[in-house]
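Good morning C.,

I know you're traveling, so I'll keep this short. The sequence:
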Amino acid sequence: MNGYNGGLTSVDAWLEYVSRLQWQTVGMGLERMTEMVDRLALRRPAQHVITVAGTNGKGTTCHALEQLLLGSGATVGTTLSPHIDRFNERIRLHGQELNDAEICRAFAAVEAARGDLTLTYFEYSTIAALWVFAQAKLDFAILEIGLGGRLDAFNVIAADTAIITSIGLDHQELLGDTLDAIGAEKAGIFRPGQQVVLGIDMPNSVMARCDQLGLEPSVLGQHFSVTEDATLGTWEYESDGQIVSTIPIGQCGPANIALAYRAVTLIGVLESQSIAARKKLLRNASKGLSVKGRLQKFAWSGRTILCDVAHNPAGVEFLCRELALRGLDPDLIVCGMLTGKDHLGVYTTVSEKLRGKWAFLDTFGDRALSAGDLSHAAGLMQNDDPKARCFDLVTGLGGLASFLSSASNEGDVILVFGSFNAVEQSLMLMNHSAGAC
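The tokens, ready to paste straight into the viewer:
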């Protein structure tokens, strides 16, 4: 028998209980997941399952898929990882975060089936999401791969469509230290007979896995394309001889929206719609898509704050391109990161492209890194670079507000980026002051 004796009535209580159960933060291997999926009959959590893997861009692509599928009239469940503000962000049903009562019900169902099986935090939440989707009898389930692919908990589900958004260097201690090695891990989500959609610059290992399984991937830059016009603030999508032009550039990157649209097109869910209706759907998705922590924009104390969770060199390279596309050049750049990341690579990439002065922010938790240690890891010492005079150790919302106010001027653009923890701090500050703009 397990140690649960009932009585858990809040999400926080459940999460505390689940955290006590786990024997490791990341459990590589699918044996426990396979057992739980079989116990709860979750092999097909929806009529059509889409898995989304990649180093960067997964969350945005999942949100875009969700919006496009809902716009086509389908019923949709979506998983995201990790969350920024609260656990509810991880499980979405019909475009809305799952409420507390539904999450508690899902956790209770997992616990009833678990017995003496030990699950990690991520496995527990994964099974809960799959159970919710199965209960809802959905048309589509969108599953974001949290780490890698081959051994990710969601890979126990044989998806009908697979997307890899990008391959970059991150989590090398678990996935390998070359793009080919990381690509091979992420290509572990592929199955024979799938529709596969790929971002640009895939390593040979990804394409080789497609060949091994007889898959014919649709690749951005080859089978469909994106052309951006920073002057007009629009972008263009082209595939199969058809063009959707004057798509407004919104909060999210056109490339990720294009990956989602290509997948939805290949699935065939848009076949009953006119070409005009499809174009409208894509334009509305690009204009209206908003994802927490992805170029999220706020007005604060006469300044504009941008929040983004880019935290590896490839991710910040993409972020800098997106900022340039929107004509944004931050005056103050605030970075907070966890241990185990390429801090020097991130700093070098951003500082080569953005002119603003720098500051570093404490992060918290198991892999916390102080602002001082981050500045040192980035190859800098306090005040040794004219661009980087604003190093500070910031703790608490009051300290963060005071620091941002003293280190910037009214009218400035402030970029806060790095780990989800750093962005969470800035969003907490925003929640206590001005609203989103």
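Safe travels,
E.
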